[in-house]
Write a structure and sequence with these properties.
With 311 residues, this protein is mainly β. 11% of the residues lie in helices and 43% in strands. It has 5 helices and 18 strands.
Length: 311
């Protein structure tokens, strides 16, 4: 499944929050666009708080409007994607309450957080779907510093994987210093030099299509500290085997192989590749390619859970 960049969804609900950080400058909120995240998706600075992808004409605008009674921060993404079903699904999974097909919202005493969808908006003579993150702070009960609010906008150092297709291969190697530890790697390239394909469908879901046409899916997440290496964690969707009616439903399993010696003998079976998508990796760049590197540990003792006092 190759997603054409002109029609794919470049930013999803959680990505909209990643596009800016908010700093407290003399008691006021100052927006700072995440140039790195935007530039990797080919959105470049055009004017003030406006970024444009010249290849697709898609736009991202940022704004912060403050009055005595409230402050409104907006991230407006002018998208050319025709099918918004995946964006809507992810908005529904974001923790916001579904108000309608075009609005998801959370309210508390001082804060209102919304995902808004407006269709067929004319901008510069072209029709877009406007996808917005809107955060409104009510100052009626007093001002709250940005770092103490219900929703915060810290600097996001994650890598924009959403709506990208990579070709990949994997390997596992012995750690010669430790007999029960192994180095594991996934090599990713946007060029078709490997037979397996990995598509990051949105901000949390992925799909693998192997060279033998077998497929499996799962989720991913990222974490990154201040200028530290990005860590990517994968999970494979567990599937329960089909059984006749009236039989006890078995526990869903990923189908991955976890024993290193068995793993080395199983390539290119699907269970071999599934193993690599149940692990966490550090991300680094090798030219235009991505290299995910991690460790696999075997035969580590399981720590017993201390018993509670009085039981």
């Amino acid at each position: 499944m190759t997603i054409h960049k002109s029609f794919g969804q470049e930013f999803f609900p959680t990505n909209l929050k990643s596009l800016i950080s908010v700093e407290n400058v003399e008691g006021k909120s100052k927006l700072k666009p995440n140039d790195y995240f935007l530039n990797e998706k080919e959105f470049f600075w055009a004017d003030d708080l406006l970024f444009i992808n010249k290849k697709t004409t898609e736009k991202v605008k940022f704004s912060c409007n403050t009055s005595e009674s409230k402050e409104e921060i907006r991230v407006d993404y002018y998208s050319l994607a025709k099918d918004l079903s995946r964006f809507i699904k992810r908005a529904g999974e974001s923790g916001l309450k579904k108000i309608s097909e075009n609005r998801f919202e959370h309210k508390d005493k001082n804060t209102k957080i919304r995902i808004d969808i407006k269709r067929n908006i004319l901008e510069g003579g072209k029709s877009y779907n406007l996808l917005s993150l809107v955060v409104i702070e009510d100052f009626t009960n007093g001002r709250v510093a940005p770092e103490n609010r219900a929703i915060k906008f810290p600097v996001d150092y994650s890598y924009p994987l959403q709506n990208t297709t990579y070709y990949f291969d994997t390997d596992i190697k012995d750690d010669k210093s430790y007999s029960d530890e192994y180095f594991i790697n996934i090599r990713l390239s946007k060029n078709a030099k490997y037979g397996n394909k990995l598509v990051f469908l949105d901000d949390t879901n992925w799909k693998v299509t192997l060279a033998n046409k077998q497929t499996f899916t799962g989720t991913y997440s990222q974490s990154a500290g201040n200028y530290q290496m990005v860590n990517i964690g994968f999970n494979v969707t567990a599937i329960a085997p089909k059984v006749p009616k009236a039989y006890l439903q078995p526990i869903a399993e990923t189908g991955a192989i976890y024993n290193a010696s068995e793993l080395k003998k199983s390539k290119p079976k699907t269970a071999y590749y599934k193993f690599f998508f149940t692990k966490s990796y550090d991300l680094r760049f090798e030219g235009n390619d991505l290299w995910l590197s991690g460790k696999h540990y075997e035969n580590y003792p399981t720590m017993a859970v201390p018993s509670s006092k009085g039981n």
